[in-house]
Amino acid sequence: MPTIWLVALLLALAAAGFYWGRARALRTAGGDAKDLHSLPSYYGYHVALTSFVPAIAVLAIWLLAQPLFIENRVSGMIPAAAVPENSTLGLVMSDVRRVAEGLDLAVEQGLLTRAEARDLSSGSQDVRALLGEVGVALGNDVRPEVLTAAQAFRNLSNTGKTAMSVVVALLAFGGFAWAYSKTHKDFRARNVVERGVLALLILAASLAILTTVGIVLSMLFETKNFFGLHSWTDFFFGSTWAPNFRGDSELSILPLLWGTLYISFIALLVAVPVGLFAAIYLSEYASNAVRSFAKPLLEILAGIPTIVYGLFALLTVGPALAGLFAKGGLLGVEWMAGATSVLTAGLVMGIMLIPFVSSLSDDIINAVPQAMRDGSLGLGATKSETVRQVVMPAALPGIVGAVLLAASRAIGETMIVVMGAGAIAKFSGNPLESMTTITTRIVSQLTGDTDFASPETLVAFALGLTLFVLTLGLNVLALYIVRKYREQYE
Amino acid sequence: MNDMTLMEKTVDTQKIKIAAKDVNVYYGDSHAIKDVNVEIEDKTVTAFIGPSGCGKSTFLRCLNRMNDTIDICKVKGDILLDGEDIYDKRVDPVQLRAKVGMVFQKPNPFPKSIYDNVAYGPRIHGLAKNKAELDEIVEKSLRRGAIWDEVKDRLDAPGTGLSGGQQQRLCIARAVATEPEVLLMDEPCSALDPIATAQVEELIDELRSRYSVVIVTHSMQQAARVSQKTAFFHLGNLVEFGLTGQIFTNPEDPRTESYITGRIG
Questions:
Q1: What is the pLDDT of residue A326?
Q2: Any chain A CB within 8 A of the CB of B124?
Q3: pLDDT (tens digit, 9 = 90+) per residue, A432-454?
Q4: Is residue B163 part of a domain?
Q5: Virtual torsion, Cα A244, A245, A251, A256, nearest 10 deg
Q6: Which residues of B touch A487 (CB under 8 A)?
Q7: Residue B186 belongs to what domain range?
Q8: How far is B92 from chain A (nearest CA, A)?
Q9: Cα B216 versus chain centre, distance
Q10: pLDDT in tens, A319-337
Q11: A292, A379, A387, best to mutate vs chain B, most B CBs in 10 Å
Q12: Residue B131 located in a structural domain
């Protein structure tokens, strides 16, 4: 039975459980809902959840665990002698999987009967040609060990699937029967359902956290592999970024870090003043009509995909800057070689961050109590004096937090830099030169047809982990500052 | 304080500080103040009383143009400070507010040090030539706010760290520091406990020697205790205005009598 039907069965059972549980609860109360401990629908939910949740949980775990288990068993069956020279067990196993898949397809299309697929041996028939007919192309003839393993593979997975269907169905029906029998007018269904809801919420929260942990761990292991192949002193303290796919590369993070920080700095130089002044105007000066019109407009900027900003950098800002500073430009200087530069990417990234800074600052400025402004205005301060001397100091911690959050976004930004900043890793103070950042190098090291186990590829994980630590640190610092000073006025 | 002493309260007639003529205030469509005429004397405490929503705070905020900060609020009629119309185009509301100080319902010290709170006004208006002069102004204002002895050793401590009553006296000191001529107080004791209230009331009585004080209050006892003149507002109208003793013992208008005896409120 395909898994989808199993899920459909579970859903149908849950729906039936809802109505039957509800009806039974009402029956035990003689049709009067007031005699029930909980609302009738809670009894329905109780039966539905008890039949559905454990079964679907087991199904999910089974689906995850079964391939691992089978893989383990089958790879144990392949003798070491069956692995050819300059090949690995992993490659043989992928052959096994392809053959098993091909046999499945052949049975499905009627070329083989089930029994024939099970008993097929490489001597009696050209398995490679047969599988070729169903669209599974193999690189070489199927060796007998591989065919046996593939057949075992099919066997195990068929048995597993059947067992899974039985177990899941039993669990579902068992849960249904148990919950149905418990349904009675004095049964505290509401409390049970409430606990179920709580468990669901906890599950959602822990999934998010576990994913983060998983991401960090996966990067951590690959980073460890990288440092096994490449010296960490070169990575952290070297001065050159020169990946070379024939090996012997210089892979230092420092030039990339410099580019990242330089571009982010220029972006913040644009975004912080503009965003902050926009927020002050919107929250302190603008009339309601202007605010209701300008604020959503500003926030539209935040919804533009970064690749569109990248196009803007590539097609508009870059050429405009080149028109000023490059050879034959308006200023008659020759400071810029092409359209891509730190300044191009920084300016466009700054524009991207404006709504981010302004909408966060706006919330923070609005949180400053009106009594503060009244107090200042009542003393004869002008509006700008009030903003400068009372509102801003009161809002400062929050604004610092907003700026740090913007900074961590700038550091992690990729598309704008790919399209606007160029791809040359170097130390330079000239904002009109091309530079590159950590994020763009991660992309270029991982995309491409290279050996995954080489330091040139694995360096991406080390870069990613460094980036993660950097932005995590900034976010933690921002949250700390915001929290520490938030309760200053009540 | 009983009615007998109320009647004996000395009231010297002073010159008129603020005169309001036919003042009407609108919040959008609602007519908040209707044809109010009132004359507020110098060196006198004038109390505005009345039930919630009667317009007494709104009227108070007209006297230093704080209502300008509310977009939908419109003020009509004349309000004269020393004979000059404060709603005249030539009058800068910012300068007016330095002359007509305000203390608010809830103590609202800035999140700065005690010293900087008091020095805020003088700095903005450039009242001190140097640090020594500023120190002098701060000390004088804190003394007038009757809080100097409590804070003189910790002028660098944040103003928000004081108790509610201390904060309110700090706010009064802050308002006094700009050398105003009139002090407006919008229910200055409503967020304070009885002891702090007594301290602030005592302070208000002292302030009378230098300033014209206008106080909005919900407590009739407080109005009776601190004021020489009382104005009773009801539904946007100024119902009765006269000597405090007169209003509380022998009101002319039946609505005033109903209010002070607790029948309407």
A1: 80
A2: yes
A3: 888 889 998 888 888 876 677 78
A4: no
A5: 80
A6: none
A7: 3-110+181-260
A8: 10
A9: 7
A10: 888 888 887 777 777 777 7
A11: A379
A12: no
